[in-house]
Sequence to fold (225 residues):
Amino acid sequence: MNKETARMLFMEYLYDELEEDQKTELENFLDANPALKAELEELSNVRSMLSHLPVKDPAGQIVLVEPETNSWFNWWNNFIDSLILRSKIAKAGFALGMCLLLFISIASLTKMNVKMGSDGFHLSFGEPQTVQQGFTADQLEQLITQVKEDNARMVAQLVETAQEEQQKQFEETLINFADYVEQQRTSDLKLISTGLTNLDETYYDRFRQTDQVLGEIIQTVSRND
Fold:
C-alpha cells in the first residue's frame, strides 16, 4: 500500500465500509506514517463538526410568488413611460430631430436644391438647370494659336537641349582623343629614348671591342718587328 491508495480509503474507513483485512492493513500503514495518520484525524474532526450542524427543513425555505395576470398591460405602461421625455433638454432635442426629419422629407419631395456661392445661399426647387458652355470662333482660333505657339516653343526647347547634349558629347570626345594622343606621344618618346640609350650602349661596346682588337694588332706587329 502507498499513500495515494491510503488516502482513497479514508472516506470508507470513516464510514466503516472497509473489510477487516483492508481496515487492518490501513491502520498498520497509518501507524508507520504519522503524517498520513494526522490527515485522517483532521478529516475525522471535520466530519464530526459537520455532523453537529443543525439541518434546516428545505420546505421552509421555498417562497411562492403569485404570477402577475396583467403582465402585458404592465409592460405596455412601462414602455409608454420610457418614451415620455422627462427633461427640457430631451424635449428640445426631440423637437429638433422631428423638425430636421420634416425638413428632409419636404426637401426630398420637392427636389429642393441648396447652393452656396460668394453672394450667399441659393435655394431652388425642381431639377437643376444645366448651363451649356461653348467656345466662339474667335476663342477657338485663339486657342489653336496658343497651342501652336506652345508646341513651337516646346520643339525649339527640345532642339536646343539636343544640340547642347551633342556639343557636350563632342567636347568630351575631343578631350578623350587629346588625352589618348598625349599618352601615345609620351609612350613613343619613352620608346625612342630607350632605343637611343640601347644604341649608345651598343656603339660603345663595339667601340671598345674595336679598340681592343686594334691594340692587339699593334702589339702583334710590334713583336714581329
Q: What stands out?
A: The chain has a mean pLDDT of 76. Residues 3-48 form one domain. The helical segments are 3-8, 10-14, 20-32, 34-51, 71-83, 88-110, 137-224.
